[in-house]
Design a protein that fits this description.
- InterPro entries: FluC.
- It catalyses: fluoride(in) = fluoride(out).
- The chain crosses the membrane at residues 5-26, 32-56, 63-80, 92-116.
- Helices cover 83% and strands 0% of the residues.
- The chain has helices at residues 2-26, 36-55, 59-73, 76-88, 92-116.
């Protein structure tokens, strides 16, 4: 159990650092009316989970890469917070687009990752 905890922690730390760096890189340009950084990391994370689901046979590597890295890289709480902020700022249309696009494209990204690694 301790080994799995350490693997999840190590993967989560690296995933969180990658999420931070991705957000910094994506938001370097002009500000977007759409939370593009969170959208981007969540879609990439969905794709990675799809890839890893078929590529990684070992439970220990799954703890490291899927639970740890992808769990640290993606962020549902930020997604929810950004949507609430959009709604509170009377940007309901953007919030709906963000929610629908995230769910549909996220599912598609997981499917694509799994399809590629079949």
């Amino acid at each position: 159990m301790l080994k799995q905890i350490l693997l999840v922690g190590a993967g989560g730390a690296v995933g969180s650092i990658f999420r931070f760096l991705t957000s910094v890189f994506v938001t370097r340009s002009e500000p977007w009316p759409f939370p593009v950084a969170t959208f981007f990391v969540n879609i990439i994370g969905c794709f990675c989970i799809g890839l890893f689901a078929n590529l990684i046979p070992s439970n220990n590597l799954r703890f490291l890469m899927i639970t740890g890295f992808c769990g640290g890289f993606t962020t549902f709480s930020t997604f929810a917070s950004e949507n609430l902020s959009l709604i509170n700022n009377n940007q309901l249309f953007i919030a709906v687009i963000y929610i629908v696009a995230s769910v549909i494209i996220g599912l598609g990204a997981v499917w694509l990752g799994m399809y590629i690694t079949k």
